[in-house]
Structure formats: C-alpha cells, structure tokens
Amino acid sequence: MDVLIAHGTEASRRSVAGSLEELGLQLREAADGPEALEALLSAEPPRVAVVDWDLPRIEGPELCRLVRDFHVVDPPYILLLAGSAHHGEVERGLTAGAHDCVRTPVTTGELKARVEMARRVVELPWGHGEVCGGPCAALEGVLGREAAVQRLDAELARARRERADLSIGLVDVDGLGRLNESHGRAAGDDVLRDLMARIRPLLRPYDALGRLEGEEFLVIVSRTTEDDVADVLDRLRRAAAAAPFESAGEKVDVTVSVGGVSGREESAGELIAKAREALGEAQGAGRDSVVAGRKVVLEAVLIPE
C-alpha cells in the first residue's frame, strides 16, 4: 500500500518514515502543500497520507478540504498531525476532511497503530468501482453499495459541518442463504423485495437505504441520537417479523438482526465497521434482535397462543 508523508522538513519526513518502515509500505514524500496535492489528486493517488498541519504553502486542513472536494467517492485516508500550537483545533481538521487527527509529538507505536487502522479501512471490500448489480437493481428505492457508501460519506461531512447527530444501522436478513438453498434464489428475491417495501415507509425522506452485500443492508438515519437509534431500528425489525412473507404461494417466516451506532467524526468505513460489531452482538443474542445506541438489546417477545 502506498503512503504519502507530507511534511515541510526533511528530518520530520525521515522520522515518520522510520516509524513506519516495519509495516512493509511503499512510502512517498512531499515537501509542501502543492506537491502533496498533486500526488493526492493524481490518477493513482496514495491510499493513505500522513500530513502535517503546518505544511508550507497549503496548510494541512486546507489540503484535506481540497482532496475531499475532488474525490467524491473513496478519497485517500488522511491522518493529520496537529502540533501543540493547535490544541483544541482537532475538530477543525476533522471537519475539513481528515479521517484522523493526532497531536504531536506522537510515539512510534501510536503512529504505527493509526496507520495500520487506516490500512484496514481503505482495504475494506466495498472499494473502487464495486457497484451492487443483479438482484439489487430490482429493489426499488435501494442504493447499490458504492452509492450507499458515497451517501454516507456525504451525510458524515454534513453532520460534521452542522455538528448534527447521525446514526446508521446494518440490517442482516436472518437465514436468507438457507432460504435460497431450500426454495431457490427467486424466493429469496421475492422476500427481499417485500422486506424493502415494509422498511422503506418507516424511513424519513432524507434517510437512505442501501445494499452492501447479498443479505446485508445499510440504513442511514440522519439527525438521530444515540439515545433514539435503538427505537428507530427496532421499528424496522418489528416490521420484518410482523407477518410471514409469500413466495410462489408459500408463506415464509423471515426476521432481521440489526446493529446500530451513532457518530460523525469517523469515516464511512469506520462507522460501518462499528455497526458490524454491533450486528455481530445482535446475531449472537439469538437473531431477530437489535443492538444499538448504548448497547441496548431489543428482541422479539414470543407470546404463547
């Protein structure tokens, strides 16, 4: 993976490079803002950039803003280094478009850990040009994977600018794979279409619904706090379990598990990764449940007939 080190002094660039040399990275250097900008806006930009706040000619936050505005989808991951003179301005750097911001001096261990986290984020599977096609195209009102992540990026940028709340949920259709095996893929497609028809009316016009993988859907719930997200997502869970679905005249019981988180300083990939952890907890709780907000678990209550 290519990593750009953008700093105004050669000694500092060498120091950062020395801290990262054990990670097996392809390291590139830039001595000022214009040189860094040219590299980051090139046809093959580095996937990660370590950028000094006081970069000559174009400061680090302004560089972040320019890169963010140019790369609408999948921009390079920028780790901004903020010196002691910029105490309290971390929010400004993140709002400008940095994915992470750390105050210097920073230890070698912390810098390596943050770059390793950046590597994990940029190597997540919803990368370049991967658009959900096939059955996804038949789900009316559901974004494909690339469009969904792009929408989340835009909503996160808006939330940071407006200091607003943002929540997301990952909805996993319990047992869809088994349904496809036992009843055929057409049955699974029928269930997904009916499920989305139940869920969409429960979302507000400015919320969004997208498909990340075969049975995993992303719900973007703007202006919703950590205290409220569990209730919002549980409405979706209850709608799925409210009545059996039908396919080829046969009734099929299908439920969903949902993991939700709130945030605005994270990148889209980081927020999705956190939601996936919550989803794993929901699935571990027995499925047909929601883990969201302050680790709230909401699950179906079965009433004997």
Task: Explain this structure.
This protein is of the alpha/beta class and 305 residues long. 40% of the residues lie in helices and 21% in strands. α4 links the parallel β4 (77-82) and β5 (100-103). 40% of the residues are buried. The chain folds into 2 domains: 2-122, Response regulator (Rossmann fold); 134-299, 2-Layer Sandwich (Alpha-Beta Plaits). α3 packs parallel to α4 (90-96). A 6-stranded mixed beta sheet has the order 7-8-6-11-12-13, sandwiched between helices.
Task: Identify the notable features of this structure and list them briefly.
305 residues; disordered C terminus; alpha/beta; Alpha-Beta Plaits; Rossmann fold; five-stranded parallel sheet
Distance between the termini: 59 Å
Q: Biggest sheet, in brief?
A: 6 strands, mixed
Oligomer: single chain
The first-level CATH class of the largest domain is given as: Alpha Beta
What proportion of the residues form beta strands (DSSP E)? 15-25%
Q: What is the level-2 CATH architecture name of the largest domain?
A: 2-Layer Sandwich
Name given to the CATH homologous superfamily of the largest domain: Reverse transcriptase/Diguanylate cyclase domain
| Estimated radius of gyration | 22 Å
CATH structural fold name of the largest domain: Alpha-Beta Plaits
Number of beta-strand segments: 13
Structural class, by secondary structure, is alpha/beta
> What does the average pLDDT come to?
84
Anisotropy-based shape: elongated
Q: Count the helices. How many?
A: 10
Helical amount among residues, as a percent range? 40-55%
What number of domains? 2
N to C succession of SSEs: EHEHEHEHEHHEHHEEHEEEHEE
Strand order of the largest sheet: 7-8-6-11-12-13
Q: Which regions are unreliable across 5 or more consecutive residues at pLDDT < 50? A: 126-137, 301-305
